[in-house]
Design brief:
This protein is of the alpha+beta class and 600 residues long. The protein folds into two domains: 208 residues, Beta-galactosidase, Chain A, domain 5 (Distorted Sandwich), CATH 2.70.98; 364 residues, Glycosyltransferase. It is built from 13 helices and 28 strands.
Length: 600
């Protein structure tokens, strides 16, 4: 288990934004307005990017954990003078409970310092930097609070002791004894909005209410299956990555964390991808209940809107924005000097043919809650099926979002097959006889083409693109989608070859030459082994893959299979989705419950 570097961070969330806190008690990332808004703290990407730390003055050791069934983090610092705890949380709206947590979050970060034993000297350093480190602001005392304003953003700190201010930074030294409690509160508001009444009262009371809010949400989600604690934590992470007002789930809380240290594959993941949609919904269905899944589908239907023959955008902002134009942030050096740092993601311009399949598959999973289909949803799903008919033969950028050239990716053709297959499952509820005949003919032709062109006899496996000799872990989706049994001779050979050439201890790279293992692909391999009847080996592999999570159970996008270092944006929804789905596949194999594969 790795707990330093990137993996040394814990996630705080409030239903509209996220913060990351490291082992030394430093808040190194917070974009308070919403996930993809400009930052106030981004030390994660540059030492000069702004921070807020509270920690002992001398040497210390750390033990930390989330308060049970919450994303409220308690860090205990052990020193030669005694022990002190710091409890951190993004505050939920007062009294918010159940599925409504996060809908009206006030934008407040609360930190409660409590003496456990002995008398511990402490230090606090507060250094806000606005718009990804571009701007600092004077700290001004106003009505007993420390106010920093930079353009559209204002943050106000309430502290329990006098602070020393030096321009745009503030600090304090204080001592905490047994039972003593000191509370710090940092509140965000748009500069030109009238300040609202302080909703926190005592920050400690606000955190206690936030704990109750998280636990009321967790009480609705009684997962009984393989790895229940890990699934429960992953479900909380997915909820933490949910923008509650719309229901959108962002791919990750961060931007520009590199896939390879010193590399330039650094992308902004604070958006919602439709290619992740079906997998996200499946995980929410398994680990939670249909309320979150239904809300997520409602967001997708609204964001996509009328298609009118145009390709479906592959991704959106959390409120359905389409233009996510990428721009470089020159003021930041990047995590571990891995530049560039980007805001926005040019992948929004790409075409990925699997997107219609993701949406129709998700609708099929929610069929009981979408019955009867509204005219708008019926029109959307029919249009997506027709788009699959019209486009499945074309090349695209693929699910790994290649930026060099379009190709005939197998996983993209598979997504089109899924779109047509699930549309036919809807039958007369979705289309008339002419529609069904057209969808059926295209589905069968796509299937025959995938089986013929996707298989490479020289390699002895299905490969990532037609005519390619490169193995690609995305073909593991074939049995997961119900396209071909995992016990099929060719599929079994493909699984075996991927395990031999792309995997180390179950940690699977996307392709040969990929610098690190992709956590989601690793869980796909687990699922394929289950579907092939190798449950015991799959369970052992699951344990090995899940063990790369940090001490709080958080997973990044990728992991170095040799060192265990986590890489890429963090925490990554895809990775936690993979864990939940693989755990349920193992559960289904033991209990006879319906698998998550094949549209069930």
């Amino acid at each position: 288990m790795v707990t330093g570097g990137l993996a040394g961070h814990g996630l705080l969330a409030d239903g509209r934004s996220a913060a990351l806190v490291d082992l030394a008690g430093s808040v190194n990332w917070w974009c308070p307005e919403r996930f993809d808004a400009p930052s106030v703290f981004c030390r994660l990407l540059d030492a000069s990017g702004g921070h807020w730390w509270i920690r002992p003055s001398g040497h210390f050791e750390v033990h930390r954990d989330y308060l049970p069934d919450t994303l409220v983090l308690r860090t205990v610092f052990r020193t030669e003078d005694g022990e002190v705890s710091v409890t951190d949380g993004l505050v939920l709206a007062g009294g918010a409970r159940g599925h409504d947590i996060g809908l009206r979050s006030p934008g407040i970060l609360a930190r409660v310092v409590e003496g456990v034993s002995g008398t511990v000297p402490m230090e606090m350093s507060y250094c806000p930097r606005f718009e990804y480190g571009r701007r600092s602001a004077y700290l001004v005392w106003r009505d007993g609070k420390l106010v920093a304003t930079s353009g559209p953003t204002t943050v106000t700190m309430t502290a329990p002791m006098p602070l020393t201010c030096d321009g745009s930074e503030a600090s304090a030294r204080f001592v905490v004894g047994p039972g003593q409690r000191e509370t710090f509160v940092l509140a965000y508001r748009p500069t030109y909005h009238e300040p609202e009444p302080d909703p926190t009262g005592d920050g400690g009371d606000a955190l206690a209410d936030t704990v109750a809010g998280w636990r009321s949400w967790a009480a609705h989600h009684d997962y009984q299956g393989h790895a229940p604690e890990q699934v429960r934590r992953s479900a909380l992470v997915l909820q933490g990555l949910t923008y509650a007002p719309s229901g959108a789930v962002v791919a990750a809380a961060t931007t520009s964390l590199p896939e390879e240290l010193g590399g330039d594959r650094n992308y902004d993941y604070r958006y919602a991808w439709l290619r992740d949609f079906s997998l996200t919904l499946r995980a929410l269905w398994v680990a939670a209940c249909p309320t979150e899944a239904s809300r997520l589908f409602g967001w997708v239907a609204s964001a996509v809107g009328r298609i009118d023959g145009q390709p479906v955008p592959i991704m959106f902002g959390v409120e359905g924005e389409r233009d996510l134009t990428e721009r470089r942030i020159e003021t930041l050096r990047g995590y571990a000097d891995s530049s560039p740092v980007w805001v926005g993601n040019e992948a929004w311009r790409q075409r990925q043919l699997d997107v219609p399949g993701e949406v129709i598959d998700a609708a099929w999973r929610l069929r009981d809650y979408l019955d009867p289909l509204t005219p708008e949803i019926r029109d959307l799903l029919r249009s997506l099926a027709d788009q699959a008919v019209a486009s499945w033969r074309e090349p695209d950028a693929g699910m790994w979002e290649a930026r060099d050239a379009q190709r005939h990716y197998l996983s993209s053709k598979l997504g089109c097959w899924v779109a047509l297959d699930r549309a036919l499952w809807f039958g007369g509820r979705l289309g008339d006889g002419e529609d069904l005949a057209r969808w059926s003919a295209a589905r069968d032709e796509a299937r025959e083409t995938i089986l013929r062109e996707g298989w490479n006899p020289r390699v002895g496996a299905y490969t990532g693109a037609f005519g390619s000799d490169r193995l690609d872990a995305s073909v593991l989706l074939m049995p997961i989608a119900g396209f071909v049994p995992a016990t099929d001779d060719r599929m079994r050979a493909t699984i075996r070859l991927i395990e031999e050439r792309l995997s180390r201890g179950g940690l699977v790279r996307r392709w040969e030459g990929d610098p690190a293992a992709f956590t989601l692909c690793s869980f796909w391999l687990v699922r394929c082994l289950v579907l092939a009847g190798e449950r015991d080996r799959a369970a052992a592999m699951f344990d090995n893959v899940a063990s790369v999570a940090n001490d709080l159970g958080l997973l990044a996008e990728q992991v170095d299979p040799y060192t265990g270092e986590q890489l890429g944006n963090f925490p990554q929804a895809f990775s936690h989705i993979g864990l939940i789905s693989a755990a349920w596949e193992l559960t289904a194999a033991s209990t006879g419950a319906a698998s998550t594969g094949g549209g069930n």
